[in-house]
Design goal:
Layout (H helix, E strand, L loop, with lengths): L9 E3 L10 E3 L3 E4 L2 E4 L2 E3 L7 E4 L2 E4 L3 E3 L3 E4 L2 E4 L8 E3 L2 E5 L2 E4 L14 E3 L5 E5 L3 E4 L7 H4 L1 E5 L5 E5 L2 E3 L1 E6 L5 E3 L2 E3 L5 E6 L2 E3 L2 E3 L10 E12 L2 E3 L5 E4 L2 E6 L2 E5 L5 E14 L2 E5 L2 E9 L2 E3 L2 E5 L5 E3 L4 E4 L2 E3 L5 E2 L5 H4 E4 L10 E2 L8 H5 L6 E5 L2 E2 L3 H10 L5 E8 L2 E9 L1
Parallel strand pairs: 2-5, 3-6, 4-7, 5-8, 6-9, 7-10, 8-11, 9-12, 10-13, 11-14, 12-15, 13-16, 14-17, 15-18, 16-19, 17-20, 18-21, 19-22, 20-23, 21-24, 22-25, 23-26, 24-26, 25-27, 26-28, 26-29, 27-30, 28-31, 29-31, 30-32, 31-33, 31-34, 32-35, 33-36, 34-37, 35-38, 36-39, 37-40
Antiparallel strand pairs: 1-3, 41-42, 42-43, 42-44, 44-45
């Protein structure tokens, strides 16, 4: 055991090097109450144990490579890389608790798997930042964000991160592709993309995301081939594109606040080629973009959301099959709900707060000129409640009845228009 001049300080294991030298740790090492200044910092794969720092101030200006577990508790760590060849690599667990981790970004452009932040190597790599920690770039400049931000890369589909009750700043992006990624109770500030994730069981809850980069397509949360994800109880302020998903299933976006999205083409919730997406009890305010945009989304539910002072192209734009838009509230808003004409009646089942709260059926969201519905007198906003005297409760009911009708026969539709219940539609198959 080594004890320094400070009576409370000391270490066990690999000795602390002289100032400016490399520190290569090859055995279990525990350091407390020390100040350390080094160049390269390694915990080797051959090490017989892990590294633990407790109440340590450490400055390193070279390569960092952790092949065994490292715990950093109540400490202040600065990694001041001198060139683009210096990196920060994790192939085991890095557990950061109640600590500050400050990195400078190298001069290289980010998103090229270079040394802009932290690289997770292999399936066992796990980065955990919790308990009031702070992670940030020491040289971030919003006017040169691509060159001064940090990235957390991963070369494996099983490595992951955990951010909890901490402050995370200046991220270009974080890639966490393993199952059960947890991002909870954090403050994200000036981040381009807080998290990119896939797998099962993703959780993003109780975060405050502030001042995102003004860049189209850079979603704060991006889910790719995700299943069973939850995004809830977050506040997104001054973000551009916010939550995005593709090729995903069973995603729940609930009880979030999206405010001050001041860009015509900003999308707060975007999805494509996905299914079973629930968007429930979210609030959109002071928004000049489109809060919800779904492309080729099936079996989704958009329910009980509130839209206040939303002036973008559309509040809700949905394409796909068997989607429900139910009991949403719009105040001081522009265009409300748009369904692409090509999808017609098969595109959405919609029940609106102002129209048909207690009645089941299919809402006519558009009528093609010179179509059979057009000549039968159908109008946008009609609610189809019966077909050939059989109640309609789903798109499947409608399609089955139409398919069973012989060519040339009439199809009789009972519909509700406003407060009237009238039979007006007689279609010839």
């Amino acid at each position: 055991m080594f004890v320094s001049d400070d009576a409370t300080a000391g270490s066990i294991g690999t000795p602390i090097p002289e100032e400016g030298e490399d520190w290569e740790i090859d055995e279990y090492t525990y350091v407390w109450d020390e100040t350390i200044v080094i160049n390269d910092w390694f915990v080797t794969a051959e090490s017989t144990g892990n590294l633990k720092l407790d109440n340590v101030i450490l400055y390193a200006d070279g390569d960092v490579d952790f092949a065994k577990k490292v715990e950093i508790i109540d400490s202040n760590i600065t990694i001041d890389k001198q060139n683009t060849q210096d990196g920060f690599y994790i192939s085991n667990t890095l557990d950061i608790r109640n600590s500050t981790i400050a990195l400078n970004s190298s001069v290289d452009h980010f998103q090229n798997m270079s040394a802009e932040g932290i690289m997770l190597i292999g399936d066992s790599a796990y980065l955990s930042i919790t308990e009031n920690s702070l992670f940030y770039s020491t040289n971030f400049n919003i006017s040169k964000a691509y060159y001064t931000s940090l990235e957390i890369w991963s070369n494996s589909d099983d490595s992951k991160v955990r951010f909890e009750n901490s402050t995370i700043k200046h991220l270009g992006f974080t890639r966490s592709m393993g199952d059960n990624t947890i991002i909870r109770g954090n403050h994200f500030d000036f981040c381009r993309t807080s998290i990119i994730s896939s797998g099962v069981g993703f959780i993003f809850t109780d975060n405050f995301v502030d001042r995102g980069w003004w860049e189209s397509g850079a979603y704060q949360v991006w889910l790719w081939e995700a299943e069973g994800a939850i995004v809830s109880n977050n506040i997104f302020n001054l973000t551009y594109d916010t939550i995005g998903m593709a090729n995903s299933v069973d995603i729940n976006v609930e009880n979030n606040i999206f405010q001050n999205a001041r860009e015509t083409y900003a999308w707060s919730i975007y999805g494509r080629d996905s299914s079973n997406i629930t968007v429930h009890k979210n609030h959109f305010q002071n928004h000049s973009g489109s809060p919800i945009v779904f492309q080729r989304i099936n079996e989704s539910l958009i329910k009980e959301n509130t839209f206040f002072e939303v002036y973008g192209p559309d509040n809700v734009w949905v394409s796909g099959i068997n989607n429900k838009i139910i009991n949403n509230t719009f105040e001081y808003c522009g265009s409300l709900i748009s369904i692409p004409t090509a999808y017609g009646i098969s595109g959405c089942i919609e029940v609106t707060k102002d129209g048909y709260d207690d009645e089941k059926g299919l809402l006519v969201v558009s009528v093609k000129p010179k179509s059979r519905g057009y000549y039968a007198g159908l109008q946008q906003g009609d609610l189809l409640v019966e077909i050939n005297r059989v109640p309609l409760e789903s798109l499947r009911d409608y399609e089955e009845k139409v398919n069973k009708t012989k060519d040339g026969n009439l199809i009789t539709l009972l519909l509700k228009r406003g407060n009237s219940r009238i039979v007006v539609a007689k279609l010839t198959k």
